[in-house]
Specification:
With 543 residues, the chain is α/β, with parallel strands linked by helices. It has three domains: 1-65 and 183-244, Rossmann fold; 249-309; 327-542, P-loop containing nucleotide triphosphate hydrolases (Rossmann fold). It is 41% helix and 21% strand. It contains 17 helices and 18 strands. Helix 3 packs antiparallel against helix 4 (115-134) and helix 9 (246-281) packs antiparallel against helix 10. The longest helix is centred in the middle third of the chain and has 36 residues, at 246-281.
């Protein structure tokens, strides 16, 4: 369908893409991965015509219809679900509006007094009816009615306002509008951001069921694994294709890096031998010719790039903190509501030192509210929440943490302010773990993107010594390498962690206990995410 051939994109201040080569065939589902700023979204912009490549070719077979589901959903909250879906048929909607206008005019005309005007309107009506039929206007309603249940909406939801539904449901509507347009290629940019697990499961199955070709940008590794059979990896402006799912890509990339490392070491050893020979016999009367010949050969050799020079965010660790007592948190008979909705009803929970708890549940189930209750930002209506009596030192990261950053400060200065005794090397290594490389550490906060601000806010929370960590969606806006760094740091963390997250791969790596919030109750699973999934399978098989 589409092929990128030696595509580059150069801005006045930066080279984003150097040598991009990949192709997508009909019905293929491809994952586009790489660190933040690698140029993934730039390739989407080139595909949909928002940007033009500096050099190279983008070859398209025929004229494939490309649709783009953006992170910022384009839904009118004042329309009903049915009206919102029908709005995707813009041409039909315009003709339909004209038909309604003509019909309204005809109602106001007295045929006996103004028959000529009526005849003109009848002719106009017939013309628009033919156009309406040619555009598939009569099938539109049928297609909309068919897709409503496929998107998971109940029949009576069709006449409810879009504004009554959560972001996850609005994402379903935005996707439905695109599917109704029958595109050949669907571009998805972080579609699972801010979706609860239930909606992510639905989205996976739905996208697998449709025959449309898909290019997916995502940091959700489970999602990539389930959906994609080809991964395009973008690093330093160059693309590399891996014919397999995300797990295959990770394994193969690791093998390639190991192979490159060995080849580099062998070449360096050979170069060292040749350089010693040249140095030793450069001035020799009998061997200087050989030495010069070897020197020429050495200049011609294609040097293998050092694996240490390839981009990889430095890892980091949590600062040391005194240990807490065995009991970290106790929740007893807690009930809390929001407006008229009961969020939590008579729930109890005991948290012990060293537990890494992942809190999961649908959007609106009370996960973030629970963290705010623990932090005493909200007073519980009924029940009590008590922290352990011995040495509990909390750190709390909330989703809108970035809004509190001082916009006039430089990134590196914010870290220094919290830890003035750190060396510049330590500060830069720590920031590298959150994707701030080279000169980006000297950026002012007002120059940062939304994702960069969120990462900086998370870094500032994590560097504070604590033994009880509360994190609300910490992996939002982290690239894959930064997520791996956070996973590693949390595994090594000696304290207790209470984490709200929809990132299944992340949860599977760090959590040793799962708390599911369902129907205003806590369901505790004393095991990791895989244990939780097994229990869910057993439940579903009995249902």
């Amino acid at each position: 369908m589409i092929r990128f051939e030696n595509v580059s994109k150069i801005y006045s201040t930066d080279v984003v893409l150097k040598n991009i080569n990949w192709e997508i065939k009909k019905g293929e589902k491809i994952g586009l991965v790489g660190s933040n700023g690698a140029g993934k979204s730039t390739q989407f912009k080139i595909l949909i015509g928002e940007e033009e490549q500096t050099s190279g070719l983008v070859l398209k077979q025929g004229n494939p219809k490309i649709a783009h589901l953006k992170q910022e959903l384009d839904c009118d909250i004042n329309l009903t679900v049915r009206e919102e879906l029908e709005s995707s048929f813009k041409d039909i909607q315009m003709v339909s509006k004209e038909l309604t206008n003509i019909e309204d005019q005809m109602k106001l005309i007295d045929f006996d007094k103004d028959s000529s005007k009526m005849e003109k309107l009848v002719e106009k009506l017939a013309k628009y009816q033919r156009e309406f039929e040619a555009l598939g206007g009569y099938q539109m309603q049928s297609e909309v009615e068919k897709i409503i249940p496929k998107l998971g909406f109940a029949p009576d939801d069709a006449d409810k306002l879009v504004g009554n539904f959560s972001g996850g449901w609005q994402m379903k509507l935005a996707l439905g509008k695109i599917i109704l347009q029958k595109p050949d290629l669907l571009l998805l940019d972080e579609p699972t951001n801010h979706l609860d697990l239930e909606t992510i499961f639905w989205l996976e199955e739905y996208l697998l069921s449709i025959k449309i070709a898909i290019i997916l940008i995502s940091h959700d590794r489970y999602f990539l694994d389930k959906l994609c059979k080809k991964i395009i990896f973008i690093d330093k402006g160059v693309s590399e294709t891996f014919n397999g799912n995300y797990s295959f890509f990770v394994e193969q990339k690791s093998l390639n890096e190991e192979s490159q490392k060995k080849a580099y070491q062998l070449q360096q050893k050979e170069i060292e031998i040749q350089e010693k020979y040249i140095e030793r016999f450069r001035a020799s009367a009998t061997r200087s010719t050989q030495a010069k010949s070897r020197e020429k050969q050495l200049k011609k050799i294609s040097r293998i790039e050092s694996p240490t020079l390839s981009f990889k965010s430095p890892s980091f660790t949590f600062p040391a903190c005194p240990r807490s007592g065995k009991s970290v948190l106790q929740i007893k008979n807690l009930s809390h509501s929001f407006e008229e909705k009961i969020i939590l009803f008579d729930v109890s929970l005991q948290v012990s030192a060293g537990e890494k708890i992942a809190v999961i549940g649908p959007n609106g189930s009370g996960k973030s509210t629970l963290l705010k209750l623990i932090m005493k930002e909200i007073i519980p209506e009924i029940g009590e929440i008590k922290l352990g009596k011995h040495n509990i030192i909390k750190s709390y990261y909330e989703q809108n943490q970035a809004e509190a950053l001082n916009v006039e400060s430089q990134v590196i200065d914010l870290i220094y302010a919290k830890s003035p005794d750190w060396t510049q090397e330590k500060v830069r290594t720590f920031l590298g773990g959150f994707g701030f490389q080279n000169d980006s550490v000297f950026k002012y906060v007002y120059q940062l993107s939304g994702g960069e601000k969120a990462r900086l806010a998370l870094a500032l929370i994590i560097m504070k010594p604590s033994n009880f960590l509360l994190l609300d969606e910490p992996t939002n806006h982290l690239d894959l390498q930064s997520k791996e760094n956070l996973e590693f740091a949390l595994k090594e963390y000696k304290g207790t962690a209470f984490i709200v997250s929809h990132d299944r791969y992340f949860i599977s790596k760090v959590a040793n206990r799962i708390i599911e919030i369902k129907d205003s109750n806590f369901i505790s699973y004393n095991g990791n995410y895989e244990y939780f999934l097994e229990k869910q399978k057993v439940k579903n098989s009995k249902a």
